[in-house]
Specification:
This protein is mainly beta. Helices cover 1% and strands 47% of the residues. The strands form 16 sheets. It has a 4-stranded antiparallel beta sheet with strand order 1-56-55-54, with no helix packed on it. It has a 4-stranded antiparallel beta sheet with strand order 2-3-4-5, with no helix packed on it. A 4-stranded antiparallel beta sheet has the order 6-7-8-9, with no helix packed on it. Strand 42 and strand 43 form a beta hairpin. The protein is globular, with a radius of gyration of 29 Å. The N terminus is likely disordered.
């Protein structure tokens, strides 16, 4: 259990039926930030390429608007280029173009065999470098690209232009063309055997290259190179820019990453991002008096107006965050962001997601994995420990545990007992409000805990290889062996007399249900098109499943599922909560979204109609068929079901189903691996609660090859 349910007012609404329409999911205003790969400016507009599309600012970075219409979901924008008012982006595998400054996009990679790493316009021609196939050019505004066979290098990261000289840097150093790309020559004299030239920038008549062994400059069009200065990290520079007569270089690294400034060639580079605590800087951009940096750990865009001495975030409207967990307590909803940023990992909203404010005072590590809330107590589990707040997130204290690993992934609040689960450490228990902790791992042979939930008598822990059950509040554990597979059990929730488990990893992926406190489980995936389950949320007899491709809802405890997301909400759903008549979901790379529960409700009659009065087997469809057909049937009670296929001689061909199934409508598919002919399918059912009640029926079907 990740979250307090805290939404009992929804019980009446949720006892009604489901609307299968996708309705209106609305992206909330945060949490703001992003994972940036590139920054560029054209015609007064700043473009930010993120790991999930393009954002544009028309007011010098004060506000951002999502401009990803026509781009695929999770489109990682690695580079941005311009041809007058045309905008080009490279995603690593595809190239797109916009003719209306980002309002819409279309594919523009005819002739290109690989993803683009940089664009440069030289006269009427546009050059595009690739990471595996050298350089291409286009003479018709990107409608078709021609490969330049003479470019020498294949893995090229950057292009720069001075006068009639075109430079390209990549694996093997720097090459130059003086005839508009017709031919190229290597210009590596003085680069000290540079293995990789990762970034190029032109400044006046100087060409500057950053690579695997430092940053160098040339005053003679690359004929010779000189080291710019000392004091840089050992890793290659990601980007460079000239701003206010200073040279800036960015680096992306845990230890030496950030932005460095050089005032004079031959001097020392000075680090200029100490106050931001940001070590993953992919992009730099100079616009007037402002210097921008784009970060790749969730921090988004930062701006400096004093040549890099001080920085402030400028992410209004940019929602490109990796939301990991949601929780509700009272009138507050909490959102955890699993970014490698410092100081901005946990947020809260008191106005239904209209605005989010940082809520991390006292949290020393802000890569948030899980949040749980009960009354005024909120607990956050991170990659670097757990933290507890007793005032709805206004301040936080460190959970004092002396333990081998402090990577916490799961939390369960059961009355006065608080359980923490983590990687390599099993389960910890506090019985005094989080002041003292003790391990409770007897019988736990797998200490990688991904999920926890329980009721008054039972506690279940999901791991990366199955789950364990405890009937004595963690004093001892037993491995669940009946019905629940050894996949990644990402989610455990309970609802009335049911426990549910969400499992990731083929062939075990799906949702599983137990009616006997975790001893036995059955798979419940009817209608679940994506079975890799990341999150679960339950209330009354309603169950929501967050998968790797959207949200599904069941109003009959998992017997059947209906999809309720589309578009951008069809991504990895990291967590789900209900709050103030809305369903909130965390969508990987797209922040927090909400949708009124009433949009997913049609009427109580639909719910009642889902309970069959008797056993019933439908004719297979299609019939005749080739090569597969669907067999549907309805069960009036929980039953042991067996479905077999046999030929006209009575010989069994295949057993399709042999398991316990719950009341409701079910489907199975026969993928025929035999030749054309007449075949039969027979269903045999026995009522679990009344073994004397039995049912059997046989139907004919025709396979035409």
């Amino acid at each position: 259990m990740k979250n307090s349910f805290g939404a009992m007012l929804l019980v009446f609404l949720l006892t009604m039926g489901i609307s299968s329409g996708f309705g209106q999911w609305v992206q909330t205003s945060g949490p703001e930030g992003g994972w940036l790969r590139s920054l560029a400016v054209n015609n007064g507009k700043i473009y930010a390429g993120t790991m999930a599309g393009v954002f544009v600012s028309t007011n010098n970075g004060l506000n951002w608007s999502d401009k990803s219409n026509g781009l695929p979901n999770l489109c990682q924008v690695r580079c941005i280029g311009f041809d007058s008012s045309r905008v080009f982006i490279g995603t690593g595998s595809e190239t797109f173009q916009s003719t209306n400054e980002g309002d819409s996009w279309f594919k523009s990679d005819s002739g290109l065999k690989h993803g683009v790493t940089d664009f440069k316009k030289v006269g009427p021609r546009i050059f595009a470098s690739t990471g595996t196939d050298g350089i291409y050019c286009s003479d018709d505004h990107g409608m078709y690209w021609n490969h330049l066979d003479s470019a020498i290098l294949t893995n090229i990261a950057s292009i720069a232009v001075i006068d009639s000289n075109i430079f390209a840097g990549g694996l093997g150093g720097v090459v130059r063309s003086t005839n508009n790309g017709v031919s190229w020559t290597q210009v590596n004299n003085g680069l000290n055997n540079m293995l990789m030239a990762s970034t190029l920038v032109a400044f006046d008549k100087n060409i500057i290259v950053g690579g695997s062994n430092g940053v160098f400059f040339s005053t003679n069009y690359g004929e010779s190179w000189i080291l710019t200065g000392t004091g840089l990290p050992a890793t290659p520079a990601r980007n460079m820019v000239v701003h206010d007569n200073h040279l800036y270089a960015s680096f992306s690294d845990w230890t030496g990453g950030g932005v460095y400034r050089l005032s004079n060639f031959g001097g020392s580079w000075d680090p200029k991002t100490n106050e931001v605590y940001n070590r993953f800087v992919n992009a730099l951009l100079s616009v007037g008096s402002k210097l921008f940096m784009g970060t790749y750990n969730g921090g988004g865009v930062y701006v400096s107006t004093d040549s890099g001495e001080n920085w402030s975030s400028t992410n209004s409207g940019m929602v490109n965050t990796l939301v990991s967990s949601l929780a509700v307590s009272g009138n507050t909803i909490f959102s955890g962001v699993n970014d490698y940023r410092f100081g901005t990992g946990l947020y809260r909203s008191t106005n239904n997601g209209t605005s989010w404010i940082p809520s991390n005072h006292g949290i020393a590590h802000n890569s948030i994995n899980v949040i749980a809330a009960l009354d005024s107590i909120v607990i956050a589990g991170t990659d670097g420990g757990a933290f507890i707040s007793r005032n709805l997130g206004a301040s936080w204290d460190t959970v004092d545990v002396t333990w081998f690993n402090r990577n916490f992934q799961a939390i369960s609040l059961l009355g006065s007992n608080i359980f923490l689960g983590g990687i390599f450490q099993g389960v910890l228990l506090s019985m005094d409000g989080g002041k003292n902790w003790n391990p409770v791992n007897s019988g736990l042979t797998n200490l990688n805990i991904l999920s926890l939930d329980g009721n008054d008598s039972t506690l279940i822990a999901g791991t990366d290889a199955g789950a364990y059950v405890s009937t004595n509040m963690g004093s001892s554990w037993n491995k669940i062996a009946s019905g629940l597979p050894n996949g990644y059990v990402n989610a455990i929730v309970h609802n009335d007399s049911f426990f549910f488990a969400g499992v990731q990893g083929s062939p075990w992926n799906g949702v599983y249900r137990s009616v006997d406190n975790g001893l036995n489980w059955i798979e419940i995936v009817n209608g679940l098109q994506n079975k890799d389950v990341k999150s679960l949320f339950a209330s009354n007899n309603q169950l929501f499943a967050g998968t790797f491709a959207g949200v599904y809802v069941s109003i009959n405890n998992g017997t059947s599922w209906t999809k309720v997301t589309s578009g951008r909400t069809d991504e990895v759903i990291t967590d789900i909560v209900a709050f103030q008549n809305n369903l909130f979901i965390g969508v990987q790379s797209y922040g927090v979204w909400r949708r009124p529960l009433s949009e997913m409700i049609t009427g109580l009659a639909n719910d009642r109609a889902l309970t069959p009065k008797q056993y019933f087997v439908e004719q297979n469809y299609p019939n005749p068929f080739n090569p597969s057909t669907k067999i549907s049937y309805s069960l009036p009670s929980n039953s042991n079901i067996r479905i077999i296929v046999f030929n006209v001689l009575g010989q069994q061909i295949e057993e399709l189903v042999n398991q316990q199934q719950s009341v409701g409508r079910h489907e199975t598919v026969w993928n025929a691996g035999v030749g054309s002919g007449v075949y039969y399918y027979r269903i045999e059912a026995t009522d679990i609660n009344n073994p004397q009640r039995r049912f059997s029926e046989t139907k004919k079907m025709l396979l035409l090859r």
